[in-house]
Amino acid sequence: MDTYTLFAGQFLPFNERYLPGGHNACAGSGTALALRHVYKALEDKNADLAQARWDETPAGMFAGREAAGAPVLIIPKAGENRLYICLDAEAAEKKISPEQLIKKSPAKAAASGCLYCATASPSHPFDLIEKVRRGWSAAGAAYIHILCPCPTAWGFEMENTVRIARMAVESRIFPLYEIAEGHYNITVEGVRPRTVADYAGRQARFASWKKAQIAALQEQTDKLYAQLQASAAREMN
């Protein structure tokens, strides 16, 4: 089924907003792909995209170091509420630090009063589209944090953007989950997680990392994912 979900999104109603001029992102840009899915999600939701504006992640509200400077599409909702879409290319740096890999912004957004918060990835288009729609439908402010691999800066072939995004999810470095009114739910959970070493080994930006650094990141990833599972399990009991 996963094979087909990469293509089935093309059948959703959508007015192509990049045409006729295209976009100025690099070839294989995860940001361009993710934004295209966002537009698909809101196509029939009466969202006034003409009134949307771009900004950097609002630091005072929910941005941690991992999202500092990431572009955010801010879409007005009813009243004073907003839907924040963070397009995170992890600073598009050729060298990456552990702090940039661990995403804390969704939890910070929830603690700051956003009624719906979630992570999303262009590797899982229907999960992404559904979360954007839930964020739009939420009664209050909402925040969606989308991972956007950058082939130029991260160091991988441009045709592998979706593959790298999927590997981030499979390695649990970037788990897909949502927080709805304080309640956690893991939306995609694989049976056999991929190793962090496998994920990092496909990208040039990790070339300078030592085995001990990869092992430490694996340990931290496992610990945080176990905490996420525990939070989601509490909601089911």
What gross morphology would you assign? Answer: globular
Continuous helix count: 9
Radius of gyration: 17 Å
The unreliable regions are: 1-5
Q: Give the count of structural domains.
A: 1
Distance between the termini: 30 Å
Structural class: alpha/beta
Oligomer: single chain
User: Order of helices and strands, N to C?
Assistant: HHEEEHHEHEHHEEHH
Strands side by side in the biggest sheet: 1-2-3-5-4-6-7
Helix content percent band: 25-40%
**Overall pLDDT, averaged?**
85
**How many distinct beta strands?**
7
Structure commentary:
The structure is a single chain. The protein is α/β, with parallel strands linked by helices and 237 residues long. The protein has one domain. The protein is 38% helix and 16% strand. It contains nine helices and seven strands, in the order H-H-E-E-E-H-H-E-H-E-H-H-E-E-H-H. The chain has helices at 2-8, 30-42, 98-101, 105-111, 125-137, 151-154, 161-170, 196-200, 211-236, and strands spanning 53-56, 71-76, 82-88, 116-120, 142-147, 176-180, 183-188. It has a seven-stranded mixed beta sheet with strand order 1-2-3-5-4-6-7, with helices on both faces. A hairpin with a 2-residue loop joins strand 6 and strand 7. The model is unreliable at 1-5 (pLDDT under 50).
